């Protein structure tokens, strides 16, 4: 490895590889990848500007001339032209005439993800913390804008009223795509009663209710979050099917009688000690033969390594709690908590969510 790295770092070898016909395509591909990694923050900010200005929504209604766009988004012509060119370079919009623009394929896909606008706006806090990544790493986890937003993380799950509103709303907005992948991947209809622990405003429970008509459903979260869940589930027409329990899943006993417990994007929010405590609490609440389904983005996922330790690793560090874990690491924690027969559940898009199921 050391010998390889010395060769790759040698300017003379780099010049040779860029000129030699057999290595030139590899060099160009690697150069593009490295440039995108270095410039990625700029692309992210172009996306943020498009979302904030509702540019993609405007073009979804139909192609527009530059002057129309500039007036609609309230940005001068030169600034609008610069934004459109930048957005076109990453596939969000397309130029269809000299000064006429339409929605691009990637822009349409971006609009199709219901929670993306909320996530992009939320990333302002992460960008602020990452403005000085060395300081963030040296001071220890949390202590910045993101951890202030996720008040529940630093107080180990204690939140009330407005403290949980922003968190719950963001999680609910970003949950539908996750829920679809999980429900498509696991046979929920094999179970009689399901308890969603840390279920937020009930977006996942509502998705299961819509797809699995026979299963009895329950949700457990902080009392203030549970109140929001009750209102959301009632408004969606699922209220009569769902029992909402309020409490702290690290300190309180979980309600029993459910043959399936789900943890959807919950475990990775917690450091090892509270995560183990949560798993033990779930184990105690499950009957013999009951199952626990864990679904979240995971570290060391083939093809999604950067999403695990790159994005979520730094995000959770800035948040002040938790870590992305590999499938093997979660399986080991499950065994330590008393579970058996942990196995991977294949999902359509592991970049977004992976899953593992274990038996009591």
Q: Outline of this structure?
A:
This protein is an alpha/beta fold. The chain has helices spanning 2-9, 11-19, 24-52, 55-60, 66-73, 77-89, 105-112, 116-130, 133-139, 145-149, 151-154, 162-185, 203-211, 223-235, 272-285, 305-319, 327-336, and strands at residues 64-65, 93-97, 100-103, 193-197, 216-221, 242-246, 260-264, 291-296, 340-345, 354-359.
**Biggest beta sheet summary:** 7 strands, mixed
Order of helices and strands: HHHHEHHEEHHHHHHEHEHEEHEHHEE
SS strand fraction: 5-15%
Q: Could you tell me how far the N terminus lies from the C terminus, measured between alpha carbons in angstroms?
A: 44 Å
Secondary structure layout:
Layout: H1 2-9, H2 11-19, H3 24-52, H4 55-60, E1 64-65, H5 66-73, H6 77-89, E2 93-97, E3 100-103, H7 105-112, H8 116-130, H9 133-139, H10 145-149, H11 151-154, H12 162-185, E4 193-197, H13 203-211, E5 216-221, H14 223-235, E6 242-246, E7 260-264, H15 272-285, E8 291-296, H16 305-319, H17 327-336, E9 340-345, E10 354-359
Parallel strand pairs: 4-5, 4-7, 5-6, 7-8
Antiparallel strand pairs: 1-3, 2-3, 8-10, 9-10
Helix pairs in contact: 2-3, 5-6, 12-13
């Amino acid at each position: 490895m050391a010998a390889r790295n010395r060769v790759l770092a040698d300017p003379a070898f780099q010049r040779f590889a860029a000129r030699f016909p057999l290595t030139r395509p590899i060099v160009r591909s690697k150069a593009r990848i490295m440039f995108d990694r270095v410039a990625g923050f700029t692309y992210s900010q172009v996306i943020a500007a498009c979302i904030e200005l509702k540019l993609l929504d405007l073009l979804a209604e139909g192609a527009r001339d530059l002057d129309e766009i500039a007036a609609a988004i309230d940005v001068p012509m030169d600034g609008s032209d610069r934004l459109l060119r930048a957005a076109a370079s990453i596939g969000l919009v397309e130029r269809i005439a000299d000064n006429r623009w339409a929605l691009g394929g990637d822009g349409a896909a971006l609009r199709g993800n219901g929670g993306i606008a909320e996530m992009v706006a939320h990333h302002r806090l992460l960008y602020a913390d990452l403005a000085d990544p060395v300081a963030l790493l040296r001071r220890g986890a949390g202590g910045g804008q993101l951890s202030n937003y996720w008040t529940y993380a630093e107080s180990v799950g204690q939140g009330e009223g407005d403290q949980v509103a922003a968190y719950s709303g963001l999680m609910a907005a970003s949950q539908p795509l996750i829920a679809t992948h999980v429900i498509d991947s696991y046979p929920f209809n094999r179970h009689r009663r399901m308890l969603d622990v840390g279920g937020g405003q009930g977006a996942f429970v509502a998705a299961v209710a819509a797809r699995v008509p026979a299963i009895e459903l329950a949700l457990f979260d902080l009392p203030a979050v549970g109140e929001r869940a009750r209102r959301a589930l009632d408004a969606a027409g699922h209220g009569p099917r769902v029992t909402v329990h309020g409490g702290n899943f690290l300190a309180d006993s979980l309600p029993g009688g459910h043959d399936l417990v789900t943890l959807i994007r919950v475990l990775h929010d917690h450091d090892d000690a509270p995560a183990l405590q949560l798993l033990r609490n779930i184990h105690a609440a499950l009957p013999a033969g009951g199952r626990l389904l864990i679904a979240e983005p995971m570290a060391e996922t083939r093809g999604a390594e950067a999403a695990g330790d790159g994005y979520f690793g730094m995000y959770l560090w800035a948040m002040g709690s938790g870590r992305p874990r590999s499938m093997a690491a979660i399986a080991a924690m499950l065994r330590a908590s008393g579970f058996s027969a942990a196995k991977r559940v294949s999902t359509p898009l592991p970049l977004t969510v992976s899953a593992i199921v274990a038996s009591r």
